[in-house]
Amino acid sequence: MMHIGKWALLLSIFWLLLSGYIQPLLLSLGAVSIALVLVVVKRMDRVDQVPKRISSGLALFRYLGWLFIQIFISSAHVSKLVWRRDRKLSPVLAEISVQNIKPSNRVLYANSITLTPGTLSVDLDDNVVTVHALQATSVDELKQGVMENKITSIWGKNT
Amino acid sequence: MFILDIVSSALLIAGVFFGLTGAVGLFKFPDFFTRIHAASVTDSVAAILIIGGLLLQTSFDLNTAKLLFILAFLLITSPTASHALAKSARHGGLLCLAETTNKPTDERPHD
To answer: Which residues in chain A touch residue B65, judged by CB atoms under 8 angstroms apart?
Structure first.
């Protein structure tokens, strides 16, 4: 019940920020749509057995700050590859273990890999993510596990 | 205000540069998977820089919140779209450059 309340609060803030109108008609329309979503969430929880909890965004912001820096570094790298006359591309496919990362964070990990230019997650199986990289060095960096350690240090390791 | 304008234009120009880089890379790179890498430059860094530049042009009201929502959704959807493209190409049997140069081409990577 607690997390339904949290969802209600989050969705109300979302609606108000998107609409910005404080008129009775629009507010009531918002209330109706939020109620509808909450009913769906409640019914889904019963099927799912794993209620989707809302955590505080602080950890995520810490991670995003770090990720943005990584994105800038690797974009500069890929841009250099694009503009250089002699193309030294050595695309590789590699499999990287995600066993240490909690299942709920694996999508975040795969998306972070795709989001940093130069590496692309092609497939996410049970315990490995298949990565396509423009250069072998970026695969080595992933295998060293800097990004993995960042995620596990914020959200904890898979036990 | 003047300083904000300068920072904002710098971010916008950098964003346009990276967008252009992505487009050029899309033509220059040799195969499908490497081209996705070029497109992801536009997806990630150009989007962040351009929206960052626009954020500084707002007067920090509702529009700021809306721009932040756009950025958040872009950062979730664009890698997902790239992943979906790459995954379906891979499962459809498209080989990447490293495999086509080393192995006979009639072999499929996955079942």
So the answer is: 17-18
